[in-house]
Design a protein that fits this description.
The structure is a single chain. This protein is mostly helical. A two-stranded antiparallel ribbon has the order 1-2. The protein has one domain. The chain is 77% helix and 4% strand. It is globular. The longest helix has 28 residues.
């Protein structure tokens, strides 16, 4: 559990650092700032995990009804909705972390959106990859 958390923190740090290097609208001066932002995102995500999951579950049920099986067409829409909410939540977390972290500047929206998209993809595939190498998340 702790090792999986550290791997997630490392992956988030790398994505923030690389995105901050590649995009002019999202600037990250050093790896330490990226690590601080990743830690802030991890703590805030942990603090608000239950309320966000509750809101997402309530909205999903209201929009798509109960989904009993992965064989129904509604299941695909529910999955897309889940990743859309995850993308919005990650964008908000990243923007918040950038506001409170020194040496990170947001000069436009595209860099933050790119970083949030990559982080959402990493969050989607990381549990499967971690379980394949023996780190159950």
């Amino acid at each position: 559990m702790v090792l999986a958390l550290l791997v997630g923190l490392l992956l988030t740090t790398l994505v923030i650092r690389i995105t901050g290097t590649l995009t002019p609208s999202f600037e990250v001066d050093d790896a330490g700032s990226a690590l601080i932002a990743a830690a802030v995102m991890t703590v805030v995500r942990w603090l608000f995990a239950s309320p966000v999951a509750f809101l997402e579950s309530t909205m999903t049920t209201a929009l798509f009804g109960p989904i009993e099986s992965e064989l129904t067409s509604g299941w695909r829409y529910q999955l897309l909705f889940h990743y859309g909410v995850a993308f919005l939540w990650t964008t908000l977390l990243l923007w918040t972390a950038a506001l409170v972290t020194p040496n990170i500047r947001v000069r436009g929206v595209w860099g933050v959106l790119l970083a949030a998209a990559v982080l959402t993809a990493v969050d989607a595939f990381a549990p499967t990859l971690l379980s394949q190498i023996g780190l159950n998340a």
